[in-house]
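ARCHIVE CARD
Drawer: 12
Card no.: 0347
Subject: one protein chain, sequence and derived structure
Cross-reference: see card 0346
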Amino acid sequence: MKLRDFTYSPVWNIILITIGSVLFSLGVKSIVVHHNFITGGIYGTGLLIYYKTNALTPGMWFLLLNLPLFIIGWFFVSKRFFFYSIYSVVLVTVSSELINFNFNISQQLYAAIAGGIICGTGTGIVLRSLGSGGGLDIIGVILNQKFNIGIGKFYLLFNFILFIFVVSYFGIDIFIASIILVFISSTSLEYVLALFNQRKIIYVISDKNEEIANILIQDLNQGATFIKARGAYTGKNKYILMAITNNIQLKRVEEAVFKVDSHALFIVENSFNVIGSTFSKRKIY
């Protein structure tokens, strides 16, 4: 089995969901609940209810609040997505019940940063799978697939409403600390999602692009494509060389280009992900 195919196998997805779910639960139980922070999303809603009622546990509220969302996910996404997501939610619930640990971080700011990093990393690992962590992820995926509504925009709207209640019930200190927690968590999540996926798109404008392309293909095992173009000033027809590479290979490509043509125009753009061909497979839930 090729490595790319293995990353879409049930074994790999279960591993990702297991590690991510337990890590998220660790962040919540070892830091977040000891400072009355709110994580945002459905788990944050469960925390808010738990803080105000002191009934059940945050993990149990998380499970109960997810039940109607699972019904929606069953009909509107896919059965595979449903089972992966329900596994994650059950694991988060069980982990939250079993983990009883305190990192003893006394400073509120430090706790918000540490909690955000751990929870965000855990969530990001789960979202690298073909499932989700349940909660808003289910609604977010549906809105994104059916109506092309950005998942981030939906999260922002939900959390905006949630944090109105936070500032009303707990005051400005917990509100600000929770906002920091959610911001750090979102940043960590995005970093984990981009890890190993980010690519560099290279455009080379040179009169020696054919020679450059041969070096890239033969010496660097690097694919390349010619794009027809015409100079706006000279009116001369020419080819632009386009290649997709990663951070490790980028410097070698740059050196190869300027070794052939020291006057070449070398343009680099960042791409979060490249799907198809020999790159990542399309993620289908």
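Annotation on reverse: The mean pLDDT is 81. The domain at 199-271 is CATH 3.30.70.120 (Alpha-Beta Plaits).
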